[in-house]
Amino acid sequence: MLPWSKEMRGRFDEALFESDVLKDNRLGDPSQRPLWIYLPPGYDDDPNRRYPSVYMIQGFTGQLDMWHNRAPFRKNFPELADDLFASGEAPPCIVVWVDCWTSLGGSQFVDSPATGRYHTYLCDEIVPWVDAHYRTLPQREHRGIAGKSSGGYGAMITPMLRPDLWGGLATHAGDSLFETCYLPMFRESVRFLRERYGGSFERFFEDFRSRPAFSRPGDDFLLNDYAMAACYSADEDGTIHLPYDLDTGELIPEVWQRWLYWDPVRMVPAHAEDLRSMRAIYIDAGRRDQFYLDLGAEAFRRALAQIGVTDVFFELFDATHSAIEYRYPLSLRYLAERLSP
Question: Which of 58, 24, 44 has the alpha carbon at shortest distance from 145?
Fold first, then answer.
């Protein structure tokens, strides 16, 4: 294969979307966001044909243009998606790439007073805009959402929160079962915070923003903890609460409980009826995932089974959390098949 981009058989439209709900967010992050819309081969040939849609959301620290990145000897996901539809291996659909980046690394696709109203942005601004400008099938039975890691988390919770909009989801190693994916990091964070920054997140961010990001050990732990707290346990005035004591790592039960409220595994029972009405649920993760999100994937599958949802694609495959873009066309094909008329 060639080591550079090739001509697409479908086409990408690139837009700049001006959000109303992201204006004046507390982080001062841009309210104007890039938006990509992929139209499959043949879209322009039949002006009467309508298509299912799949929304792709990014992992933590992801931004939209990173989808163009490529690993050695591999195609990137936009190219893989184009190959999938050009080959006829999947029914054609419209794919929408959405940017929900924040200056803390990500939004978890929730509405938070500390970061911004990214759930509302996605569901009440982006979806109606796409339906108005492209020939989608606008019913929830023909709309899906997919992502990896924090994007996989967003793909799990968004249909539960807005079942009127989403009929399918695909999660690749999505954040879930918080005691296995987040809790073990806390003790590491406390040590890094103590040894380098005198127990102060303010000092951490002063240092972090003064140099190349992730150039010191512990950057990933500290940034992740603080960003997740900004999403899961922020007060209405924007005050962010960490779920542990900064000196000892002891859990603060009332704050940790606020995190657990957002755990997809724990959310399932309250959304049983809506999940049973989904047309497509795809779950996978690498067996050697560094964040043990394979355990969360299995826990999410079991929670679904306990409410009677057994028509689910589930696979644990031989890989880590990294470089699994080759899995995305599998879920995209699954969603395209299940969400097509």
Answer: 58
Strands 94-98 and 116-117: unpaired
Compute the distance between CA of residue 223 and CA of residue 213 in angstroms, rounded to an integer: 10
Report yes or no: 98 and 126 within 8 Å, Cβ to Cβ.
yes
pTM comes to 0.97
CATH 3.40.50.1820 fits 11-176+264-339, yes or no: yes
Q: What is the CA radius of gyration of the chain?
A: 20
Q: Are strands 313-317 and 280-286 parallel, antiparallel or unpaired?
A: parallel
pLDDT digits (tens, 9 = 90+) for 25-68: 999 999 999 999 999 999 999 999 999 999 999 999 999 999 99
Tell me how long the chain is: 341
Residues 280/339, Cβ–Cβ less than 8 Å: yes
CB 144 within 8 A of CB 95: no
Map out the domains of the chain as residue ranges.
11-176+264-339, 179-261
Q: Of 161, 179, 89, whose CA–CA distance to 122 is shortest?
A: 161
